[in-house]
What does this fold into?
Amino acid sequence: MIDLYMYIAVFTFAALSALCMISGDGVDLEDFFYIVALTALWPTLIFIIYSIYKEETKITDTKEF
It folds into this structure.
């Protein structure tokens, strides 16, 4: 799961950097802070939602011994 987290983070960082460069004015410091914040936020939200989903769908063993 951590590998997926890192892949999403790297892809998000690259995509947002490319969008800022395509916009024409380059990547200044303010854009860089937005890129870093969104890069950290997006995979973290996915990881939290996945963790909650995994906990909710966990199958518990209800056999009596």
Q: What stands out?
A: The mean pLDDT is 72.
